[in-house]
């Protein structure tokens, strides 16, 4: 018997294959990135792993950019387009082909990336896109979600997804090199040695905002010579937009809740109140750096009804959700 997810969002089976952990592509410094030269009816990537964007008459990607200036849509899995039925239905493609087509848009997003990884992705591939007109960072959820990790895993630059596996493997490697030493005491504590208490929500919001501000400051320095304008858009988690979704969302979300621990891990950040508190703090941080800021959740909430099917899960859009969000993004930012 088919699940509601398979019936309502069959494209997600292709994303499951794309995200196959057995095929994870580990990269120095960045930790991981998308599978390169991936081909399917749903998703296609270039030789570097960036998703291909569609304009009205042409296509492009970071490895194969069009001539002249471009606009970059950066961030994590939502702007990458998890949930879209094909490459032409992603946010970068809808902006390029319809809502802000005066300059080509390239998909510069990284699946499951935090703000540090978003910054590193730009640093590592900056030379491939010499003329940049605009950078829109559509992000924010992952830094807040990862703020619950222990200090030892977050380090100075923020935790990343599946970092527990990384630290476990590194400890195994260290242990293989470790020799018994007399009189020098026990080894230093490792990331998993101390019991972890999740910090209070207010502290986690402050932590995520501080990380974002630091990484935006670095992005401004790196992009400064191009003259590109930077805008930070707080992505709209489904529960930051409205408390109850469409009938299709209820069916899929209920099914996902039965097989995941979403509410146990993220229930406190998934409320409307948390979304507004986080947005208010990010707005102040962006204004201090002269970076435009947009909280997408209330903009989207004011433009949809309870029957609009926006999400394939609580973070990623349907094609309809992407279409509405792309239009509202272009209108809100005055992009043509």
TrEMBL record:
This is Inducer of phenazine A. SUPFAM superfamilies: SGNH hydrolase (SSF52266). Gene3D superfamilies: SGNH hydrolase. It comes from Streptomyces nanshensis. InterPro entries: SGNH_hydro_sf (IPR036514).
């Amino acid at each position: 018997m088919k699940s509601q997810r398979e019936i309502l969002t069959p494209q997600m089976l292709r994303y499951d294959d794309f995200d196959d952990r057995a095929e994870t592509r580990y990269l120095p410094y960045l930790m991981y990135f998308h599978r390169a030269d991936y081909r399917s009816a749903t998703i296609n990537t270039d030789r570097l792993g960036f998703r291909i964007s569609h304009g009205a008459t042409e296509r492009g990607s970071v490895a194969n950019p069009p001539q002249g200036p471009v606009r970059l849509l950066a961030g994590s899995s939502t702007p990458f387009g998890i949930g879209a039925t094909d490459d032409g239905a992603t946010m970068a493609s809808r902006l390029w082909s319809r809502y802000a087509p005066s300059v080509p848009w390239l998909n510069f997003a990284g699946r499951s990336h935090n703000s540090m990884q978003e910054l590193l992705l730009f640093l590592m591939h900056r030379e491939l896109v010499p003329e940049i007109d605009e950078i829109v960072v559509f992000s924010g959820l992952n830094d807040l979600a990862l703020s619950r990790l222990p200090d030892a895993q977050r380090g100075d630059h923020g935790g990343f997804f599946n970092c527990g596996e990384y630290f476990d493997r590194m400890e195994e490697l260290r242990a293989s090199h470790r020799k018994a030493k007399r009189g020098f005491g026990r080894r230093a504590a490792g990331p998993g040695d101390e019991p972890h208490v999740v910090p209070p929500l207010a502290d986690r919001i402050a932590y995520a905002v501080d990380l974002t501000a630091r990484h935006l400051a670095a992005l401004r320095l790196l992009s400064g010579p191009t003259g590109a304008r930077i805008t930070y858009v707080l992505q709209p988690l489904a529960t930051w937009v409205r408390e109850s979704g469409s009938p299709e969302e209820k069916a899929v979300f209920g099914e996902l809740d039965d097989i995941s621990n979403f509410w146990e891990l993220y229930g406190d950040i998934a409320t409307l109140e948390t979304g507004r508190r986080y947005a208010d703090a990010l707005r102040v941080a962006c204004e201090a750096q002269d970076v435009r800021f947009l909280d997408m959740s209330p903009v989207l909430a004011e433009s949809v009804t309870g029957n609009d099917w926006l999400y394939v899960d609580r973070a990623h859009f349907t094609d309809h959700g992407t279409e509405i969000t792309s239009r509202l993004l272009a209108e809100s930012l005055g992009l043509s």
